[in-house]
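Case study 2.
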Amino acid sequence: MTAQSPAATRVLVTGATGFLGRQVLRALMAHPRARPVAACRNPARLPADFPGEVRSGDLLDAGYRRRVVRDVDVVCHTGTWGAFWGHADAERTHFLEPALDLLEQSRRAGVRRFLLASTVAVAAPSRDGSPVDDFAPPAPTGFWPHADRLIELDRRMEQTAGRDGTGMVTLRLGHFVGAGNTLGLVPALVPRLRTRLVPWLAGGRGRLALTADTDLGEGVALAALADGLEPYESFNICGPEFPTMREVVGFLAAETGLPAPRFSVSYGAGYAFGRLMEALHPVLPGSSPFLTRSLVRVAEDRYCPTDYAERKLGYVPKKDWRTAVRESLDELRPRGFPWPRLAQRV
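Prediction:
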């Protein structure tokens, strides 16, 4: 670990034992200006080499939310409950309401900056191949409660930015790839390829905004520590390339020996089938629907350049998506590529 400076910035990381939180802790540990503080339910799951302060508790506890933000400069809210489909009530009670209160408690405690780990999928896809701007208007889905609640929280952040001196930063993160990620595109796709029922969507031409584990951590850390930000900021945090769905699925098939899709359907047909699978899920086997409309949403064409993040934060993504995907496959292979739940447990 790099030695900390006397005036180090105290950065609280919620969800510090999760895939994203662990990456953020590691990135902050390498920055001499940072003094990371880990907020989590189970400290035993923290990285073994984490030497910093630990504030254990549950973000569903209002008292903990008041206490955990005291005496810190920055809050990185990476501890979000989420699901790839449905669960509207849980998204409100386990994600939105606690997050809104954490935001308010941060402001009252004098936190200088509040960061939200969001997703590039909150914005509409690129219909004509043009870039999706860092500040592109959010596009509520009406069918994916998690994305819609992220949009609701982002709006509150924009409305209150700068109030009592608390700046707001929304990080539109690319789709996570890397070892340790159990709720994402790669863990969801591989077991579905085994069924030979997965089609290309729009011929597989859509570009995917993938972000590798270490780039995710570095992007969040840089946003926590950057100087000269506006009261409200929004940044695309994506990888160095935007491979097409055909490239990614072709790579998965080659690495696993599973078949690539043999036919193609339109995005509209994908959404219709996803809606049907969600409706039939209660009477079909499995922990999650075969296809959800959120999976179609993230598969649509998105080119989300990171020029603004490079200019304001110094963010330059480095890790090749193939390396990150291969590391994820290497971790999942001994377990037989299990069919993942598309929702965290309540």
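The domain at 9-181+210-240+302-319 is CATH 3.40.50.720 (Rossmann fold).
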